[in-house]
Amino acid sequence: MNLRDVELFIVLAETCNFTQAARRLGMSAMSVSRHLAQLENDLGARLFQRTTRAVSLTSEGEEFLPYARTMMEAEQNARIIFSDDTAGASGLLKVTAPTGIGRRFILPMLPEIMELNPKIKIDLNLSDDVVDIIGQGYDVAIRVAPLKDSNLIAHRLSSNPRILCASPSYLSSNGVPATLAELSIHQCLRTAMVSHWTFMKEGSMLSHSFMPRFICNNVEGVRSMCKAGAGIAQLTKADVHSELAAGELIEIHLSDAEPHMLAIWALLPTKRYLPYRVTLFLDALKSSLKSLSP
């Protein structure tokens, strides 16, 4: 199997267009088609559906794509090992992360990474939706929610407990709740994504249901209302870390319940042949998240 053909396959999978792939590779569209045919012959499988207007991956092509990327990354790593070039990480780093984590912890560290590694390119997708990182070619996905996909490699980056918090002005006017029962007399704010608050008690998780005074479909809205003194919110430590440090919000501790411990995870399509750009990014992010540790 020719690695040049594998590289061509990856570019065609990204562009879904013979002309665009040919332009990126400095080849003719006819040559791209010929090399693809050779790769399909080597593998004994059809990798693309071809029509006069479009090109799309077959199921075999989708299955081969992560292996193709691993092969090209392994070649790149081998070249780096035996190269005198000390320009640092290189290539395209594709990352998907929740909006809040991305804005507060990832974006601030990227300028330095790019300055110190002039050959690296970064494609950052900030979204609270769960994406198919293998199918869409991401190197790493950052997650806060409990992990469910056993096909991915999970790497824990930091603790990130759910905590109760409110503004100093709200607590001054309404008092500080000391127990779960006392929450019922307070104005509570929550995101639309959760129907109840979760806590830990004697090693077991318990749910607290309530009628919220305010609901918003994103964390930023709830955090803003909480800072403005509208009530109590349960958010993760990462969501309100800056506000806690600045005294704009105060963490509330209950006597009969403990915070529900979550974590921030990096999900990887594979542990094998991780490019240097991925390990560099993860090390930088782990350092950025150190402030969340107790």
TrEMBL record:
<keyword id="KW-0805">Transcription regulation</keyword>
<dbReference type="Pfam" id="PF03466">
    <property type="entry name" value="LysR_substrate"/>
</dbReference>
<dbReference type="InterPro" id="IPR036390">
    <property type="entry name" value="WH_DNA-bd_sf"/>
</dbReference>
<dbReference type="Pfam" id="PF00126">
    <property type="entry name" value="HTH_1"/>
</dbReference>
<dbReference type="InterPro" id="IPR000847">
    <property type="entry name" value="LysR_HTH_N"/>
</dbReference>
<dbReference type="GO" id="GO:0003700">
    <property type="term" value="F:DNA-binding transcription factor activity"/>
</dbReference>
<dbReference type="InterPro" id="IPR005119">
    <property type="entry name" value="LysR_subst-bd"/>
</dbReference>
<dbReference type="InterPro" id="IPR058163">
    <property type="entry name" value="LysR-type_TF_proteobact-type"/>
</dbReference>
<dbReference type="GO" id="GO:0006351">
    <property type="term" value="P:DNA-templated transcription"/>
</dbReference>
<keyword id="KW-0238">DNA-binding</keyword>
<comment type="similarity">
    <text>Belongs to the LysR transcriptional regulatory family.</text>
</comment>
<dbReference type="InterPro" id="IPR036388">
    <property type="entry name" value="WH-like_DNA-bd_sf"/>
</dbReference>
<keyword id="KW-0804">Transcription</keyword>
<dbReference type="GO" id="GO:0043565">
    <property type="term" value="F:sequence-specific DNA binding"/>
</dbReference>
<feature type="domain" description="HTH lysR-type">
    <location>
        <begin position="1"/>
        <end position="58"/>
    </location>
</feature>
<protein>
    <submittedName>
        <fullName>LysR family transcriptional regulator</fullName>
    </submittedName>
</protein>
